[in-house]
């Protein structure tokens, strides 16, 4: 009891010190730069629905997803490299794009064109499989010492089959390079082979299937257990019957 009390007062002391430090820190913010993790969790991003139309006016690319940028850049206010996690807000995002027989783009822009995110999909017309092959981001935020710009043309994410949509309920992280990764939530996308203004049948991602596997394994194990108990009971009953008969 005494030990716990001691621990509690130690905690209280530490907390007080932290509060005092925080208060002091407010006053001397310009003197002592913060050492803690610079980014604050922005929460789950809202889901956006994006549609690119072909020349005949119907949808040729459909995407529905929540997007979060995890970006490393040189901060003016903190005078050092920081990592920031930023949600893309669908209600202030403009979208456009293009559709060609074997490639398609989705172009998202925010902050009056100061942030531009482009997804480039490729279709292999031999295997009839598509994938996200390129991502580029340019951003000129007030806190950036120099404009951010990156592009990776050798990616292989969101693989699907022509005529089907790619679906993933689990969160996925698309690593673009060492300065940028994109967290993508509840994605359904189809960059090729749309017939109406709606998604084709969904092909579920591996992550979701793995998720489904666990309950199946647990269920099978339980069924096995029930069977063993049942067998044991039946055998036991037979033995005791045999016992009675010999007496
Ligand atoms: C529109 O064009 C696409 C190819 O770009 C085609 O697959 C689709 O059937 C066309 N839709 C209509 C209504 O003509
Ligand atoms: C952002 O990326 C870094 C690695 O570059 C990782 O440690 C961190 O967990 C990521 N944050 C989020 C919210 O994805
Ligand atoms: C920023 O940091 C560098 C060293 O990391 C230092 O030389 C420079 O004076 C700092 N600039 C400001 C404005 O604090
Ligand atoms: C966009 O949505 C967010 C909440 O998700 C809200 O805070 C913001 O005011 C909205 N902006 C506009 C321009 O509607
Ligand atoms: C495509 O058409 C739909 C419905 O007609 C519209 O909501 C959407 O904004 C169009 N997409 C683009 C990129 O203009
Ligand atoms: C996309 O496809 C069109 C038509 O096939 C082609 O002209 C264009 O060069 C392609 N774009 C890229 C970046 O491969
Ligand atoms: C398309 O797929 C075929 C069969 O899987 C493969 O041999 C070929 O290299 C692929 N083409 C491209 C450009 O990736
Ligand atoms: C681009 O992505 C590929 C595949 O994820 C990776 O191997 C490569 O290092 C990336 N390029 C850069 C410049 O980071």
Automatic annotation (TrEMBL):
It comes from Etheostoma spectabile. The keyword Disulfide bond applies. Residues 1-29 form the signal peptide. This is Lysosome-associated membrane glycoprotein 1. It is found in: Cell membrane; Cytolytic granule membrane; Late endosome membrane; Lysosome membrane. It is a single-pass type I membrane protein. Disulfide bonds join 168-205. PANTHER family: LYSOSOME-ASSOCIATED MEMBRANE GLYCOPROTEIN, LYSOSOME-ASSOCIATED MEMBRANE GLYCOPROTEIN 1. InterPro entries: Lamp2-like_luminal, Lamp2-like_TM, LAMP_CS, Lysosome-assoc_membr_glycop. The chain crosses the membrane at residues 212-235.
């Amino acid at each position: 009891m005494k030990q716990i009390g001691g621990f509690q007062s130690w905690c209280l002391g530490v907390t007080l010190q932290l509060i005092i430090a925080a208060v002091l820190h407010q006053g001397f913010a310009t003197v002592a730069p913060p050492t803690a993790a610079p980014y604050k969790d922005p929460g789950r991003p809202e889901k956006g629905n994006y549609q690119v139309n072909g020349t005949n006016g119907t949808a040729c690319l459909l995407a529905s997803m929540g997007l979060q940028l995890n970006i490393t850049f040189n901060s003016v206010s903190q005078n050092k490299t920081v990592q920031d996690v930023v949600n893309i807000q669908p209600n202030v995002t403009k979208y456009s794009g293009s559709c060609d027989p074997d490639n398609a783009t989705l172009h998202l822009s925010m902050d009056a064109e100061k942030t531009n995110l482009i997804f480039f999909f490729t279709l292999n017309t031999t295997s009839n499989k598509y994938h996200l092959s390129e991502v580029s981001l340019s951003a000129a935020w007030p806190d950036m010492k120099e404009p951010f710009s990156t592009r990776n043309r050798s990616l292989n994410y969101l693989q699907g089959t022509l005529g089907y949509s790619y679906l993933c309920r689990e969160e996925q992280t698309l690593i673009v390079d060492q300065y940028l990764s994109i967290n993508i939530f509840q994605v359904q996308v189809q960059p090729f082979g749309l017939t109406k203004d709606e998604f084709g049948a969904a092909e579920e991602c591996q992550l979701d299937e793995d998720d489904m596997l666990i309950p199946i394994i647990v269920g099978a194990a339980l069924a096995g257990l029930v069977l063993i108990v049942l067998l044991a009971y039946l055998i036991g009953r037979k033995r005791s019957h045999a016992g009675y008969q010999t007496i």
